[in-house]
Amino acid sequence: MSQSYHATYQKWQKDPLGFWAEAAEAIDWYKKWDTLLDASEAPIYRWFNGAEVNSCYNALDRHVGNGRSQQLALIYDSPVTNTIQKFTYAELLDQVARFAGVLQQHGAAKGDRVVIYLPMVPEAVIAMLACARIGAIHSVVFGGFAAKELATRIDDAKPKLIVSASCGIEVNRVIPYKPLLDEAIDLATHKPQTCVILQRPQAPASLVEGRDVDWQAAMQQAKPADCVPVAATDPLYILYTSGTTGMPKGVVRDNGGHLVALHWSMKYVYGVQPGDVYWAASDVGWVVGHSYIVYAPLFYGCTTILYEGKPVGTPDPGAFWRVISEHKVNVLFTAPTAFRAIKRDDPDASYLEPYDLSHFRTLFLAGERCDPATLQWAEEKLKVPVIDHWWQTETGWPICANLLGLEQLPIKPGSATVPVPGYDVRILDVYEEEADAGEIGSIVIKLPLPPGCLPTLWHNDEGYKQTYLSNFPGYYSTADAGFKDEDGYLWIMSRTDDIINVAGHRLSTGAMEEVLAAHPDVAECAVIGVADALKGEIPLGTVVLKAGVNRPHDAIIKELVQMVRERIGPVASFKIAAVVERLPKTRSGKVLRGTMKKIADGEAYRVPATIDNPAILAEIAADLAELGYPHQKNE
Ligand code: COA
Ligand code: AMP
Predict the structure, then answer these.
(1) 312: exposed, middle or buried (C-beta count within 10 Å: 0-12, 13-18, 19+)?
(2) Which CA distances in Å does 349 have to 152, 378, 473?
(3) Which residues of 459-479 are buried (b: 16+ CB within 10 A; e: fewer)?
(4) Is 337 in the pocket of ligand 1 (CB under 6 A)?
C-alpha cells in the first residue's frame, strides 16, 4: 500500500469532493446523495445530502451477508467480573436486532432520543447499534458522572427511553448506578416513558413499576427489528462534552459523513485490514469509545474489544499485555495516562515478559498530549511504532496523525505529526494572520470541516456558530494552541479555554467553579489545571471565604471536594483546594488563572502589566507551596 502521505493530501486538496465521493464508495447506501456537500446554509454544512443509509446495516448486516458471519465482531473482556464473552457478527446482529425490537415495542422510533447510561458491558454496544438500527438517536452518558450531570443531559436530549444497569464496577468497588439514575430522573424536568435496566448480579436493583423494564425479560419476548433507512444527514447520536460553563454541549454526529470518515480512517490512519483485532481501551461514554470501540472497527469488519478494567490494578500492570496476547490484538488505542500508570507501577515492564505480543503492530495515543518520556518508554518496551494523534469530541476522528495506512513518517515525540486529508489546519497569530513556522498561535481548521465532524450542536445552531465559528470567520476554532514546525508537523500544546484534560477525560474548570461558588461560605473562587505525573492534569481549587466565616478551613475544603464529587462526579478528580486571602486579578477584575497555573507548575511567568496588586502573587505562591506545589511535573 505505498501511497505517500503528501500525494494523498494533495489529491484531497485538488479535489475535496471527488476525494470524499471516492471514499463513499466503500459504504452501502440505500440511495446515493443528491448533493455531496450542501453549503446552502453555510457556515453550517451537510455532507451527502439526499442520501439514505443505515449505520447499523453497515456495521453488522452487510458483513454477515459478505462472509463474516462467523468472524468475531466483539470480545468483552472484564477482569473485574472474571468474564470473557465473544460474539460473532451473526450473534451480535441477532442481539442488536432483538434489542431494536425492544426499543420499538416501547415506542422508540426514528428521531427519538435514547439515553444510555451503562458501564462497559456488551449491552452498551448492543443498545447503541440498536438505536442506529431503528434511526433513534442515542446519547451515551459516561458512568463516572453524577446524577446532576445525567439530569442535565436528560433535560437537553429529552429521551423517550433510558437504558441503564443496576451497577458498574470500578476495580473492586461496586458502584450502584440505579440510585443515580433514579435521582437524575427526579432532578430532571423531562421524564422518560421507560427505563430498560440490565440487572447485574453484583448489585441487582429494585425496579420502578410502570416505568422500569428488565433487560433480560424484554429480550426474551422481543421480535427482531429490521434496519430503518435514515437520511445521511440525520443524527446518529448526541454526545455531550464539557464546554466553558456547567452546561455541556450536545455534539451531533450525522450518519452518512460519520460512516465515510470512520471507514476511511481505519484503513489510512490506523493501517488495519478487515479481520484485524482492534482495541480502543477507553469507555463507550467518550468519543473514542463511540468511534473506535463501537462504530469504526465494525464498519470496517474488524473484531473490537470491550474492556471493563483498568491498565493497572485489574489485577496488575500486565493487564494490557494479557488482553493483547490473549485476543491477538493488532492495534491498541488508548490515552497516554494509561501508559503513565503502567510505567509508574512497572517501570521495567517486567509484567510484559510472559506474554506473546507477536501480533501486535501499533500503539495509538490520544486524548491529551503524550509527553515524550512516556512515548519513548512505550516504544522501547513494546518495540512497535507509538503514534500520538490529535482529535476532539467535536471532530469524531483524527485531525492530525501519522497515517500508517499511507506511509509512516518519522516520529517526533511530542508532536501529533501532520494534518489528515480533509483537514486544512492553520495556526493564526493574534492578528488572525498565519503564524510562521515555530510560532505558537490558535489552531483553526478552514471550513468546511470534513465528513464525520459535528454539523452542529443539538438544537442549537446559534450556539454552534457562536462557540466554534465566530472567533475566526471562515474557520472552525479548535480552542487548542500550538505551532507547526518547518516540516509541517503540528505540536498541540494547550487549550485556549478553561477545559482541562484529567486522565484523558475532558472537564471544564468553569463548571467546577460554579459548584464551589455555590458553597455558602465561598465569596469567590478559581479552579486551575495543574500538572500531574499520572493524570497529566488535575484540578486545583482556590477559594476566598466570605467575610466573617471562621469555620476550620479543612472542614470547608472537605465539603467542597464532596460537592464537586456529588454534582459533577468522581471523574472530575477534584481533591485539592486551598483557602486564600485574595485572588490575583487584572485591574478589570479578570482572575489571573494562567499566572496561578504557572506558579503551581513551577514555570517562569511574567507579572502581568495589568495586575491589580502584584503582591498577591507571592501570597498565592505561599498558599500553593503549602499544598506541595510546584512539584514533579511532566516534560
Ligand atoms: N463509573 C463510576 N466511577 C468512575 C467511572 C465509572 N465509569 N470511571 C471512573 N470513575 C471514578 C473512579 O473510580 C475514581 O474514583 P475515586 O476518586 O473514588 O478513586 C474517579 O472516578 C477518577 O477515575 P479515573 O480518572 O479513572 O482515575 P483512577 O485513579 O481510578 O485511574 C487511570 C487512573 C490512569 C488508571 C485511569 O484514568 C485510566 O485507566 N485511564 C485510561 C484512559 C482512558 O480511558 N481515557 C479516556 C479517553 S481515551
Ligand atoms: P476530547 O474532546 O475529550 O477528545 O478532548 C479533546 C482535547 O484533548 C483537544 O482539544 C486537546 O486539547 C486534547 N488532545 C486530544 N488529543 C491530543 C493530542 N494528541 N495532543 C495534544 N492534545 C490532545
Answers:
(1) buried
(2) 43, 9, 49
(3) eeeebbeebbbebbeebbbbb
(4) yes
Given ligand 2 and candidates 240, 390, 411, 490, which is best to mutate, with the most ligand atoms within 8 Å of its CB? 390
DSSP secondary structure code for residue 350 in this structure:
G
Q: Select from 64, 55, 115, 66 the least CA-distant residue to 92.
A: 64
H, E, C per residue of 497-549: CCEEEECCEEEEHHHHHHHHHCCCCEEEEEEEEEEECCCEEEEEEEEEECCCC
Q: 111: phi > 0 → left, psi -120 to 50 → alpha, else beta; which?
A: left
Give me the pLDDT at residue 498, please. Answer: 86
The verdict on the CB of residue 338 being under 6 Å from ligand 1 is yes
Q: How far lies 508's CA from each of 71, 225, 241, 245, 564, in Å?
A: 41, 40, 9, 7, 12
Given the CA of residue 282, which atom of ligand 1 is nearest to it? 44
Residue type, 472: F
335 CB less than 6 Å from ligand 1? yes
At 388-439, the pLDDT tens digits run: 999 999 999 999 999 999 999 999 999 999 999 999 999 999 889 999 999 9
576 CA distance to ligand 1 middle (Å)? 17
pLDDT category at 609 given cuts 50, 70, 90 is confident
Ligand 1 atom 39: residue of nearest CA? 310
Q: Is 310 in the pocket of ligand 1 (CB under 6 A)?
A: yes
The residue whose CA has the least distance to atom 5 of ligand 2 is: 392
Any idea which ligand is nearest the CA of 174? 1
Ligand 2 site, residue 387, Cβ cutoff 6 A: no
Residue nearest to atom 42 of ligand 1 (CA): 335
Does residue 283 line the site of ligand 2, with CB under 6 A?
A: no
User: Which three cell numbers, joined as nine digits, stand for 488?
Assistant: 509541517
CB distance 477 to ligand 2 below 6 Å:
no
Mean pLDDT calculated for residue range 164-174:
96
Residues counted in the chain: 635
The alpha-carbon radius of gyration of the chain (Å, integer) is 24
What does the pLDDT read at residue 233? Answer: 98
- Closest ligand 1 atom number to CA of residue 573: 22
**Of 338, 335, 334, 332, which Cα lies nearest the Cα of 312?**
338
DSSP secondary structure of 185-217: HHH-SS--SEEEEE--TTS--PPPTTTEEEHHH
Q: Is the CB of 549 under 6 A from ligand 1?
A: no
All structural domains of the chain: 5-309+389-469 (3.40.50.12780), 502-626 (3.30.300.30)
| pLDDT category of residue 2 using cuts at 50, 70 and 90 | low
How confident is the model over 85-106, as a mean pLDDT? 98
* Average pLDDT value for residue range 247-262: 96
- Rounded to 5, what percent of the chain is helix, strand, coil? 35, 25, 40
Q: What local confidence, expressed as pLDDT, does residue 634 receive?
A: 40
Measuring CA to CA, which residue among 25, 8, 6 is closest to residue 16?
Answer: 8
| Centre of ligand 2 from the C-alpha of residue 391, in Å | 6
Range from 86-100, 312-326, 495-509 carrying the lowest mean pLDDT: 495-509
